[in-house]
Amino acid sequence: MSDSDDVPTLSAHTLAALKEFYNETRTGPDQDGTPSDPFTVGAVEEDWRMSQFWYSDETAAVLAEEAVRQAGEGGRIACVSAPSVYQKLKQGVVDGSDRVSAVVLEYDRRFTAYADDFVFYDYNEPQSLPSSVAPRSFDIVLADPPYLSEECLSKVAQTVQYLSKGKVLLCTGAIMENVAKELLGVKMCSFLPKHNRNLSNEFRCFVNYPSDLLCS
């Protein structure tokens, strides 16, 4: 997962092979053609061209539970480039999720299906957000920068700082630990997040607040 500017040009044969692989393993409608639950993790298929790698259902649930706990009664949660967690919050299976509100900030416009909960977001313009998204209006911000680069994390950090009242839950590669600490004052957690597809880079969570669940 590197910045899009650094992605090499793939041959037509390689692109065709990758497309075939994703078509064979994609998550989508059931075989009988019945549409999936729109809030099921994976209901919107991963697009590797946008560096999309969805969390496993178990990881999405753990992160959603943590967000609800930290947001508190009537709290607001911002999921920045983390649609899997937003989806889990909306499934109604996480205790307390009905007592918080959540939005998903995403570049992928397929998520406009979530209506007013969708906020178009381009990390290259970290504070280019609609007027309806007020500064420091979210009790917790959960962010998963799309690329493992200091440039990307630095820009996403600007967005996080703009949105958050204080609490930050960051998910990114372990190699970004020092940069994340410098930018957001976060520390690495013991919890190990998993994805539906195995990633070559070690992935970790970081928080800037006391968390028994994630930093035990």
Automatic annotation (TrEMBL):
The protein's Enzyme Commission number: 2.1.1.-
A molecular function (GO) term: protein-lysine N-methyltransferase activity
Major location category of this protein: cytoplasm
GO cellular component, one term: cytoplasm
Key words of the record: Cytoplasm, Methyltransferase, Transferase
Functional summary from the UniProt entry: Protein-lysine methyltransferase that selectively catalyzes the trimethylation of EEF1A at 'Lys-79'.
EC primary class: transferase
Recorded family membership: Belongs to the class I-like SAM-binding methyltransferase superfamily. EFM5 family.
HAMAP family according to UniProt: Methyltr_EFM5
Protein's UniProt name: EEF1A lysine methyltransferase 1
Biological processes, Gene Ontology terms: methylation
UniProt-listed InterPro entries: DNA_methylase_N6_adenine_CS, Efm5/EEF1AKMT1, Mlase_EEF1AKMT1/ZCCHC4
Presence of keyword Transferase: yes
Methyltransferase listed as a keyword: yes
Record's catalysed reaction(s): L-lysyl-[protein] + 3 S-adenosyl-L-methionine = N(6),N(6),N(6)-trimethyl-L-lysyl-[protein] + 3 S-adenosyl-L-homocysteine + 3 H(+)
Subcellular compartments: Cytoplasm
